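(Structure overview)
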Amino acid sequence: MTADRPDHQRIVITGVGLTAPNGNSLSEFRQALLAGRSGVTAYETRYFGPTLAGVCHFDELRYQKRKEVRRGTRAGSIGIYCAREAVADSGIDWGNVDRSKVGIYIGVTEHGNVETENEIFLLKGYDYDTQFWSHHHNPRTVANNPAGEVSLNLRITGPHYTLGAACAAGNAGIIQGAQMLRLGDCDLALCGGVSESIHTFGIFASFHSQGALAKHEDPTKASRPFDLDRNGIVVAEGGCIFTLERLTDAQARGAKIYGEVAGYAMNSDATDFVLPDPTRQAECMRLALDRAGMQPEQIGIVSTHATGTSSGDTQECEALRAVWGSNDGQPTLFNNTKSFIGHAMGAAGALELAGNLPSFDDCVCHPTINLDRLDPQCELPGLVVNQPREGVQVDAILNNSFGMLGINSAVIVRKM
């Protein structure tokens, strides 16, 4: 149980930096979620053509020079922006931080596809003569690139790496940061997830070939988890990085604390490349609850993973009902963030957790939007639909993130 751990083994969130399709800070993001403002827009990408996407509009040059942006990657720029914003938000005295004791743990769904597609497209203009292939290609495409670019920009000499965990990657970054702090591998963890997915045409083409790419005449209504008329995923870019510290360190410097990482779990379905297994998802949530020493009814908000696909949403709801039951009297509320921004892949879990953290203080649960006709298979007690639920007591949040090849994750953050 979290309460049984000594304070130096308790891990807290002290800073949040993010960019989402509907906001470039936690306050902007939260305002958009409470106002029902979508960040999904019309979008066009080479070869695939017109589609829909969640597109971010942060200032790449706030923390990078133009040359650095050209040399690096979109995922790297997102990571740098979010990490810098998180450090600033944490109030830590960065000039006096021992940067050899700072760890960077960033989750990604995939990395390198954008850069490889770009190089091949450019090479076509030179009749595929590889002497024109960029010498920047290798450092752009190595798997550790997003975390590595953050390390270079902030001059961090502690450990850095990315975690490939499909769409559970944002949660995986948080889990890794908490674990490394407990092991003493670092004294400050920058962790979360990033995604540059909208810049590769392949992801749109692949989802389209699966019949899993959302369409709607109004882009803002395309992402509609749990709705009977949902027809797939809206691909989004974005990022969210947290600063995690041991409770003793945060208290010693008088830091504001967003919440405590009280429990977490990851497991695997081991059943299918794409189709989820609700039994394993339920086991993952129960394991996170057990590690937090909590019962389901102690969770104020469950942030659902639901992507807007037919099978994915129904399977997760089956898992949620297995854990929480179908008693309308239970106090837990359920919401969804992808309905606002689409699926930010490796960044999804971190962004979705961040968007719910302010509920500890403002006592409001943001809704799932675009839910006009609830699919009967997606009925959940406490599902917050289209309008925020005000005046709620939220003492803990459980954040679900699941991914392809059957990877499941759940993170619980508790109010301090």
